[in-house]
Write a structure and sequence with these properties.
CATH class of the largest domain in chain A: Alpha Beta
Strand content of chain A: 25-35%
Structural class of chain A: alpha+beta
Number of strands of chain A: 14
Order of helices and strands of chain A: HHHEEHEHEEHEEEEHHHEEEEE
Largest sheet of chain A: 7 strands, mixed
Oligomer: homodimer
CATH superfamily of the largest domain in chain A: Bira Bifunctional Protein, Domain 2
Strand order of the largest sheet of chain A: 3-4-5-9-8-7-6
Distance between the termini of chain A: 65 Å
Radius of gyration of chain A: 22 Å
Number of domains of chain A: 3
Largest interface: A-B, 35 and 35 residues
Low-confidence stretches of chain A: none
Shape of chain A: elongated
Number of helices of chain A: 9
């Protein structure tokens, strides 16, 4: 109902709408209208009321409220159920619990602040209150093998780059899913799954984007390595619009993968990649990759693994830290 | 305390032990001893009491009670915490919930009856009350990639074959983890995991073995295809001893894999396999394998995938149904 009142206020633009009209259009009492307006105000909406004209929306809060995101959605599934909280420990942990309890495909968990956000390889991920786009999406892909899960994480990186582009910010992908702006880290993506050997029960894709983070928000030691969309664009970004657009793109890519397989997604990843063609240093994180080695990143394979040419032959990297080595001078 | 009293009674063999001695050895009151004895009797233990001699253990219930399994354990981790219930919907579902809530590495969930047991590919799995070995083990492997999870499921099949052998029952493995006795299905193994792209949070290995199932217990339509250890051995098997021995073997193999990698486990799998060297028909279950094809199963690779030689070249099977075709006559 609150979303309906908001939509009605928005449809009036600069104009007013009377409490009586709201009540009659939505089939509720004028007292109910008044209560909802009060609640919207408490949630941060600026709503002017004039005794003869009625109500007018003056401003929306800079929050990732479901109604704010939903305005921008063109999806069928993604974001059709949004769970919002002002702060939480980790949206991925929340989403995993919801998924285990049966939450629908496409459910989104979003917050303004994470107390215990984390990224790949159990690294911490910090974003100041109300400046990031911090959310997790629950996906229930059919006929997908656990071995295919890394492709979903590459897909998410492609979606982030496209959504940034729609806001005028150019970005590139460092394998597997670091989204860099001007060579600096802007985004963390953590994909988790519950799976049997032959099917994925559910995937949770957690995405944390530095949207309106200011330089002063970054801890001293990461300031040289991290940036935000705002810092790149030179102005604040509408966070709710960005999240909505990102969900739209994610769903479009997921539909494409379902229809045509992941090949076109992997091609899009290759186009956005800043890793391919570069000399890299790989630090193996587990037994599948032994220790550290260097070589040239030449491609990704059909499973999303990075292929690195080394003097000892081509190596396939499924997990690990890949840093791009400074270009040698000719 | 009940386990201590049981151990004391067992240590006496055919002899009696007085309530006074039990009380003094365990540092509890004689009333407490009496209460524990009553509880043990309610749990199904036959305990004789003679006014002058004391107590004597005459018989243990045919149940997979923690104390019964623990007697046979030589493990450090596996089965050191056992969650028992007379019946449950699914031990895998229970174990996944416990694991998500932080249950320790090696925790075992065991039951006499599953209301909603299921096997690979979401197929039903039925075992009559009190005749199977139905349990799930929670593992928290370190430094393991999700792509390596199938190897744990092959390891589990190897362990089941070894544990059956220790009971005098010969079995073989049909790829990936069907354990067959006399060519008939005896065991279901369902491995599930929670993972990020670069690490496994936890693995749950669910094992259901037809131990003392009688021919009449099998539904008519599966009688030709299913069997039990009892049917093969010609006598009942001590279920608690079998589960304890299976956990001992599982832990031994897991330690070996940790020390030496999975190569020796995969070799053991190859030795026990009845699929390799056979003409097979593969029914692909998802996009990674297209449709149905036939060929000769020649090996498994380092990730546990089945390698099948076909006229069109070698194919790698990660998931699907593999049936062995009848031998052609020479």
């Amino acid at each position: 109902m609150r979303a309906d009142i908001l939509a009605l206020l928005r449809s009036m633009g600069e104009g007013y709408v009377s409490g009586e009209e709201i009540a009659s259009r939505l089939g509720i009492s004028r007292t109910a209208v008044w209560k909802h307006i009060q609640e919207l105000r408490e949630a941060g909406y600026e709503i002017e009321s004039r005794s003869r004209n009625g109500y007018r929306l003056m401003g929306s809060p800079d929050r990732l409220l479901p109604a704010e995101i939903e305005r921008h959605l063109q999806t069928e599934i993604l974001g059709r159920h949004i769970v919002y909280s002002e702060s939480t420990q980790s949206t991925n942990e929340d989403a995993k619990k919801l998924a285990a309890a049966g939450a629908a495909d496409g459910t989104v968990v979003v917050t303004e602040f994470q107390g215990d956000g984390h990224g790949r390889l159990a690294r911490g991920w910090f974003s100041p209150y109300g400046k990031g786009a911090l959310f997790s999406v629950i996906l229930r892909p059919q006929f997908a093998l656990p071995q295919e899960a890394p492709k979903f994480t590459l897909l998410a990186a492609v979606a982030v780059v496209k959504a940034m582009k729609s806001c005028g910010v150019e970005a590139g992908i460092k394998w597997p899913n670091d989204v860099l702006i001007d060579g600096k880290k802007s985004t963390g993506i953590l994909t988790e799954m519950s799976a049997a050997m032959e099917c994925i029960n559910y995937i949770v894709i957690g995405i944390g984007v530095n949207v309106n983070t200011d330089a002063a928000d970054f801890p001293e030691e990461v300031r040289k390595k991290a940036t935000s969309m705002k810092l790149a664009a030179g102005h604040s970004i509408d966070r709710a619009r960005f999240v909505g657009e990102l969900l739209n793109i994610l769903e479009r890519l997921l539909h494409q993968a379902q229809r045509e397989g992941f090949a076109p997604i992997l091609d899009a990843w290759r186009r956005d990649s800043i890793t391919l063609g570069q000399d890299v240093r790989v630090i193996g994180m587990n037994e599948a990759v032994d220790a550290t080695f260097e070589g040239r990143a030449v491609d990704i394979d059909a499973y999303g693994a990075l292929l690195v040419d080394t003097p000892q032959g081509q190596r396939r990297v499924l997990a690990g830290d890949v840093s791009i080595r400074p270009q040698k001078k000719a």
